[in-house]
């Protein structure tokens, strides 16, 4: 560093007269700001000139070390001045000081020389690095050129084989020196062939799966990734390019709709030279040709023959002396027993354990609600058994809060009894809210508030608790007389037997899929330890029904599909290989098959595996292509077993695996939400589309209905909230499907008194919602369970019930299938996959309805990795009535007349700081309103339309 630079640094620092008191500021703030040309460095004109000169004199390294140079220079000057002062005090005089300054200058110049040398070395290092990088780039270019030349030479040898003898290419090039290029070039070939011959585009993952024609192949195909296209294209490629005969190809599906879709796609490319395409059951039929009448269920075709046969046997059991009382007892016990408490003692869990466990075990009451706890079910059943009409979790408005007390028993013109079961005492937030609820009801004299806790049950027992509850209700004026057991049974009989029938059908189906004889089932039941009275009774009746069912099929010369499947396994193992179907128009032989392709392989079961294994025993050369998505395995209730997919290598040899992960169906945020839900459960999907889509978390507890909506729907909040959401989506030109976990919605819905009641709760809810929409829009809105919508898609999807009692739904009847290894853990895993299926149906927009205090734990997991935007309900305008429009009257500054307003049906809105009430628009008179006594007390009145437009103000 030149002397001039040292002088400039000294001059700059000398101008900072407050250096001693602000040393840290100059070194840590101002000097770095000067180096970085930051606006923080506010310099006067003289200082700026010094800095400009320094920038020209200092090297790059010196400039960036300016704060350190200032510090060193200033510290040295300080030490020198101090030392000089001491010397002068001791009489050394000025001569010594001059010499000392020369020494210091020499030392500083030496240090700067070292800095320069270091800077020069650094510059040389940079030069060497740049030279090295250029050398690397040159080598890379040479390597690319060599690789391109190598590929070109290899491709010249490979292409003729791929063109003329694709199926032998693996063997020809397995030991080739350039074999590391083989799979990529083979994939390129398939991409080009499909584009050229079919006019379609495959991505590289799809093409790699199509190109792999050796060994047994498993394909993981995420939702919307084109699994059917991949499977069908592979079949076309094998037939048209590889010369595989149609008779040597077999495509298998699990349902007729899927097989028809594959057949139609194949026909577009192959005409009438189609390979064998059928369901597993169709193959079994073509092998066995049963003379018996086949019974099966096909809801889409209104064919429920199997269920009718089971139902006939159940009806016989219900009406029999031997089993009738047993069925009644088991169903009533099932609705009353808390089997989990009986088995594991979990009713007395610690707070943390209870909070973790309570979500998983919804209880079903005698009335049919899914309640949250044993205590709530005890109360619900007590009310039901004593003929008390109640509403479970009905809506109340608590300022801006949507409050749903556990049980509401209205009577009189207004008011009644409210019962709260405080089951989570000990949690500070919960206890605080309990106190607030007590205060809320204390202010409403027309309501009697009753509260209970688990201690009320454990200290005195369930019977004493119910007796005390009944007495409290009587004291409040509620008539309570216990119904006879037969009366209770008659009230629940239809619903209970429907549930029982479904459980028995599942039991029979599980036994059939395992090919169990009645004696096998008896032995299995004998070795099983039931967890409750109801499970023990069910296994007794279920075993009897199964025995009678098999005998009935035999007596009536009928057969079900499961029996047909097992007969086909036996036939193939006995040497039968020829199959004939479609009245002889289609014939085939299992021993001549070269390629077997299985769709939806995640739905495989032991029964289907046994048939495949039988085929392999007769035809070892056949190769299997199994495509599916383990994230969409949702049919365990029907006997599917995911182990065949997840442990593929245990059941097939010479395997290779492929992932096709690109979702072409859904926008980016939908794909990311699905991945977040399934984090840690396998390879994530990849979004093809760059648009984010419209994904919203709709928290119903944040929804605030207008006075008009509250009046029109009588406290039902799900209906106006959905109407707002539907209106926005329909206006964007999107068709909408509403998906529910079960056949019903977990919200309070006010149906019109004249509306016809339906056994199909979802169909009834759909008609209810459609009745508020214009006729032209009604057909654009549909509804389904999540299970039934697998394989389908819609522009906009609304998940109706992302709550902890729907996802996961641990149906109380699951306990009847513990015999077959069902467990809560397995059910929760499948529920997660079902939620994934629901999410990934959306091609444009996804809305997920939940309730924050009771949201699904799956949503909590999604938030960790893919936060969702909450819906602001205020941005969605209320939907006006199709007929009988209403007006909303808002009254401000009305403290003195609040009691009169309450009596007139107005309610306080804490957010808007006003009193609200809806009036029918027809016949409404503003003058009549202003003429009321309360309106002359200095209040401000505003009148709005249903859509929020201000009409009048005074």
Rounded to an integer, what's the Rg over CA atoms? Answer: 39 Å
> And the CATH topology of the largest domain?
Rossmann fold
* Overall number of strands: 33
Q: Class by helix and strand content?
A: alpha/beta
Shape field: flat
Summed up, the helix count is: 36
Overall mean pLDDT score?
Answer: 86
Task: Walk me through what this model shows.
- The protein is of the alpha/beta class and 954 residues long.
- The chain has six domains: 3-133, no CATH class; 183-292 and 561-660, P-loop containing nucleotide triphosphate hydrolases (Rossmann fold), CATH 3.40.50.300; 302-332 and 487-558; 351-484, no CATH class; 679-875, Rossmann fold; 886-953.
- It contains 36 helices and 33 strands.
- Strands 3-2-18-19-1-20 form a six-stranded parallel sheet. It has a six-stranded parallel sheet with strand order 25-24-26-27-23-28, with helices on one face.
- The longest helix is centred in the N-terminal third of the chain and has 72 residues, at 93-164.
- The termini are far apart.
Quickly list its features:
50% helix; 6-stranded parallel β-sheet; alpha/beta; 954 residues; Rossmann fold; 6 domains; 33 strands; single chain
Care to give the gist of this entry?
The protein is of the alpha/beta class and 954 residues long.
List the helices and strands and how they pair.
Blueprint (H helix, E strand, L loop, with lengths): L2 H12 L4 H17 L9 H13 L2 H5 L1 H24 L3 H72 L4 H5 L8 H17 L5 H8 L4 E6 L5 H14 L8 E5 L2 H15 L5 E4 H9 L4 E3 L1 E2 L4 E2 H15 L4 H13 L2 H6 L6 H8 L4 E2 L5 E2 L2 H12 L5 E2 L3 E3 L2 E3 L3 E4 L5 E6 L6 H15 L4 E6 L1 H5 L3 H14 L9 H29 L4 H9 L6 H23 L2 E3 H13 L4 E4 L4 E4 L5 E4 L7 H13 L4 E6 L14 H4 L1 H4 L3 E6 L1 E2 L4 H10 L8 E2 L6 E6 L7 H7 L4 H14 L4 E5 L20 H10 L4 H4 L2 E5 L8 E6 L24 H16 L2 E9 L6 H9 L3 E2 L15 E7 L5 H6 L3 E3 L4 E7 L5 H5 L9 E5 L5 E4 L1
Parallel strand pairs: 1-19, 1-20, 2-3, 2-18, 4-15, 13-14, 18-19, 21-22, 23-27, 23-28, 24-25, 24-26, 26-27
Antiparallel strand pairs: 5-6, 7-8, 9-12, 10-11, 12-13, 16-17, 29-31, 29-32, 30-31, 32-33
Helix pairs in contact: 1-3, 1-5, 2-5, 5-6, 6-8, 8-9, 9-10, 10-11, 12-24, 13-23, 14-23, 17-20, 21-23, 22-23, 24-25, 28-33, 28-34
